[in-house]
Write a structure and sequence with these properties.
This protein is of the alpha+beta class and about 190 residues long. The protein contains three helices and eleven strands. The protein has a seven-stranded mixed barrel with strand order 1-2-3-6-7-8-10. β2 and β3 (about 35-40) form a beta hairpin. The protein is globular and about 45 Å long.
Length: about 190
């Protein structure tokens, strides 16, 4: 992505299958690219919202957005043990359509279609979440069978990687991108 410089603003646009808006975040910052995908960061204090819900992020986060996989992963900056609460989320992976970059927009927009399933790591525990929502939306949104199979297979593959801490989930990978985020001006 040669036209996007580190620090460039990125609006993250999660949508549901029918095109309706889901979670939004206009405070993303482009960090760079590695073998796992394109990375963006978000400083603590960012506004994250969807219809009827809003919160302010209490920690910095970085996200990797692969160019050919059906997921997007966020890593959260948490204090080291012993102050670390094992129930806090360290890694949150949305199973979704392949993320799309809209470079012609200002700010740049990153869009993806959320397919409900999430892989989450809290401390040493990793699990798949929102299987009930995924089952409901197969009916209400009419997910095609191929999409259902792809989402389930992807969730299983990502669960294995997050649990084993391989690929972009290996120790040290996200830390490099946290360092890049902290090198940017907050404003």
């Amino acid at each position: 992505m040669p036209d996007l410089l580190p620090g460039a603003r990125v609006h993250v646009d999660h949508q549901k299958w029918d095109g309706s808006p889901h979670w939004q975040n206009g405070d993303g910052r482009y960090l760079g690219t590695d073998q796992w995908g394109r990375w963006i960061g978000v400083f603590a204090g960012a506004r994250i919202y969807r219809q009827g819900h809003e919160f302010t992020s209490d920690v910095d986060s970085v996200a990797v957005l692969p160019s050919a996989h059906w997921w997007a992963a966020r890593f959260y900056d948490r204090p080291p043990a012993p102050d670390h609460d094992p129930d806090l989320v360290n890694v949150y992976v949305d199973i979704c359509s392949v993320p799309q970059w809209h470079l012609e927009e200002t700010p740049v927009r990153l869009s993806l279609i959320d397919l409900d399933l999430d892989v989450i790591r809290c401390g040493e525990t990793t699990f798949i979440d929102d299987e009930d929502e995924f089952a409901e939306h197969q009916v209400s949104y009419g997910y095609p069978a191929a999409i259902v199979q792809r989402a389930e297979a992807t969730a299983g593959e990502v669960l294995e990687q997050v649990t084993a801490r391989t690929g972009p989930f290996a120790t040290g990978v996200a830390e490099r991108w946290f360092a890049a985020l902290l090198g940017l001006p907050v404003n």
